[in-house]
Amino acid sequence: MNIREMTEQWEMEYLRPWASMSRNTRGRKRAEALCDIRPEYQRDRDRILHSKAFRRLKHKTQVFLDPEGDHYRTRLTHTLEVAQIARTIAKALQLNESLTEAIALGHDLGHTPFGHAGEAVLNRLVPGGFTHARQGVRVVDFLEKQGQGLNLTWEVRDGILNHRTSGNPSTLEGHVVRLSDKIAYINHDIDDAVRAKLFTESDLPTEYTDVLGHSVRERLNTMIHDLIEQSLERPEIVMSPGMEAAMHGLRRWMFEHVYRGKAAKAEEGKAQQLIVSLYSWYIDHPDQLPAEYLTQMDERQETLERTVCDYIAGMTDVFAVERFKELFVPKSFKVQQTDMMI
User: Fold this and answer.
1) CA nearest 209: which of 226, 228, 189, 187?
2) What are the distances in angstroms from CA 103 to CA 100, 137, 160, 225, 315?
3) Is 92 exposed, middle or buried (0-12, 13-18, 19+ CB in 10 A)?
4) Are 94 and 100 in contact (CB under 8 A)?
5) CA atoms of 34 and 86, how far apart (whole Å)
6) pTM of the full structure
């Protein structure tokens, strides 16, 4: 028996009956030989971790555009915090940790530069609309590895597609990530907002903090414990009604005071206009797209609009700004001494 088979057997004996067993995956779009060491979900986790799209997350906005300080979250650090919380929950509930971590690491691969501001403007520009969840599936299916994609299992792709609030993942591991995403961003965004002096801990509504806790550490501990306790020995992932209501209430408060607030969104209009300018320029100059995007557009019969969207959505904040400067900001030049009239 090889190592993969030993691990799969361990899963069958140790994990809950309602957990996702690696040997029972619905498989990949393209059949591949099995690894003799890693079960299928672990292979997916590794593929995501080594992808270019994952590395680009370090230069993509979480909430604050170009913050002055090294300790604000980026899309990458958010992803790592989600993965940590999700694995803690999955392990306690005896679910498949590798599947949980793969979904968590891949859940935001489709995010645009400038966070949700970029997502909103691409959704307005592109025929058929745009969401980062659907784009995440495009990334792992088509865009990575110069059009080959990562060829992930069905369960991981389903978790990426359905991680948003409105999503309904097909696996319990996907549900763990869906809730872990909210637990993570509500708390770390509060931490970042306090660091940015938008408000203090005491400004948070007591109707929510009295239930959830009066610090980031308390709230994380309370919410994670509640989810685990409510979901133990059950084939579903739930929180107690009071805890869930308080979490959603605090989330609404954050939308009002941070995500849609003036301070965090002061530069949002500029960022969106930058994306509009890049989108319009590439629509008018498709020959300036990277060759791999043009090849993929022909091979998959994609529209130019969707191809330009794919390219811009994959940009980091830094790269998008640099491309804008190259295309629209006049460059300074020095007059050579020999050309000057004396």
Assistant:
1) 187
2) 5, 11, 6, 21, 22
3) middle
4) no
5) 26
6) 0.94
Residue 341, pLDDT score: 46
CA gap 117, 132 in Å, rounded: 11
Nearest to 93 by CA among 187, 258, 1, 228: 228
Q: Which two tokens stand for residue 75?
A: 């899309």
How big is the CA angle at 17 (ends 13 and 19), to the nearest 5 degrees?
Answer: 100
Question: Residue 69: how many CB atoms within 10 A of its CB?
Answer: 9
Distance CA 278, CA 309 (A): 10
> What residue type is assigned to position 102 of the chain?
A
Helix 268-284 with 304-313: angle, nearest 10 deg: 140
Of the candidate ranges 74-83, 208-217, 260-269, the one whose mean pLDDT is the lowest:
260-269
Identify the CA nearest to 156 among candidates 141, 174, 132, 175: 174
Mean pLDDT calculated for residue range 20-48:
97
Dihedral (CA of 82, 88, 94, 97) sign = positive
Specify the length of the chain in residues.
Answer: 342
Q: 153 forms bridges with which residues in the sheet?
A: 28
Long-range pairs for 282-291: beta carbons < 8 A, 24 or more residues apart: 282/308, 282/311, 282/312, 283/308
Say how far apart CA 85 and CA 107 lie, in whole Å: 14
3-class DSSP state for residue 2? coil
Positive/negative CA dihedral, 69, 70, 73, 74: positive
What are the tens digits of pLDDT across the range 261-300?
Answer: 776 566 788 899 999 999 999 999 999 999 999 999 999 9
Report percent pLDDT > 90 for the chain. Answer: 84
| Residue type for position 313 | A
Residue 126 · residue 65 · CB < 8 Å: no
Separation of alpha carbons 111 and 75, rounded Å: 8
Helix (H, G, I), strand (E, B) or coil at 63: coil
Contact 311, 293 (CB under 8 A): yes
Give the pair of three-digit tokens for residue 239: 């929180």
- pLDDT tens, position by position, 113-152: 998 899 999 999 999 999 999 999 999 999 999 899 999 9
